[in-house]
Write a structure and sequence with these properties.
Layout: E1 5-11, H1 18-28, E2 35-41, H2 48-59, E3 63-67, H3 74-84, E4 89-92, H4 104-112, E5 119-125, H5 132-149, E6 161-164, H6 165-168, H7 181-187, E7 191-197, H8 211-215, H9 219-231
Parallel strand pairs: 1-2, 1-4, 2-3, 5-7
Antiparallel strand pairs: 4-6, 5-6
Pfam families: Glycos_transf_2
GO molecular function: undecaprenyl-phosphate 4-deoxy-4-formamido-L-arabinose transferase activity
GO cellular component, one term: plasma membrane
């Protein structure tokens, strides 16, 4: 039996997208007995929260929305949702509807086959629908990141991932950490599995990323991750010896 699952979504001004996404997640994971959706509203100025709540009532899914007083950024929004999540496994997704929830069951199947308690099932967008300029930037940035970090993930910007909650909460927190989750988990001795996922057009609103912050704002953070990788130690345990285990206190 699969562990309980929390789908966590950082959202900012996603009215027109979030309601449909909530219903699609519910439909895709309806066969799973213990599923909830946790949305962090990261300082939205539209009706994102109301639309999500109305959609959840219509489809009957378990939803909680945690609202930030002001916008704190995607990594903080994800962490807030993870801290409030009840599930043992975390499924991350973007709020704009470009991630397809129908990919989630297969990723959960892959997660169930992993024996390592620390893992990341990382989606990658095999056929991206972004502009040629965005695809070029992402391709270059991903190659640089892969060369320096060696995380084995071809698409660090894909929002779809499956990670144990206990693993996520052990990771060092910093702004933009969501871009480096596979590298951070690999550094702690975890297993990384990549899986191709669909990429869809945004139906409403505009992206919260521009040409600068999409590909290059994490360069400084990347060198910080390299620093962490070099200083993370995962010793192999040869033996555990116990004396007087049953001795009276």
């Amino acid at each position: 039996m699969l562990p309980s699952i929390s789908v966590v979504i950082p959202a900012k001004n996603e009215q027109g997208n979030i309601g449909k996404l909530v219903k699609e997640i519910h439909a895709s994971l309806e066969a799973y007995p213990n599923v909830e959706i946790v949305i962090t509203d990261d300082g939205s100025t539209d009706d994102t929260v109301q639309e999500a709540l109305e959609a959840a009532k219509e489809c009957g899914c378990d939803l909680q929305v945690v609202s930030h007083e002001q916008s704190c950024g995607q990594s903080t929004a994800v962490l807030t949702a993870v801290k409030h999540a009840k599930g043992e496994w975390i499924v991350t997704s973007d709020a704009d509807g470009q991630n397809d929830p129908s990919d989630m069951p297969k990723m959960l199947e892959l997660a169930a086959k992993v024996s390592n308690p620390n893992f990341c099932i990382a989606g990658y967008r095999a056929k991206r629908l972004d502009t040629a300029w965005v695809r070029f930037q992402s391709k270059v940035a991903n190659k640089v990141r892969h060369a320096l970090l060696g995380d084995g993930v071809p698409d660090s910007g894909c929002g779809l991932k499956v990670i144990p909650k206990s693993t996520y909460l052990r990771l060092p927190y910093f702004d933009h950490m969501h871009r480096f989750l596979p590298a951070l988990i690999k550094a702690m001795g975890g297993e990384i599995v990549v899986h191709p996922v669909a990429h869809r057009d945004r139906e409403a609103g505009t992206s919260n990323y521009n040409a600068w912050n999409r590909a290059w704002v994490g360069v400084v953070d990347m060198f910080g991750v390299i620093w962490l990788q070099k200083r993370t130690k995962n010793p192999m345990i040869k033996a555990v010896s116990i004396a007087n285990e049953n001795a009276k206190q």
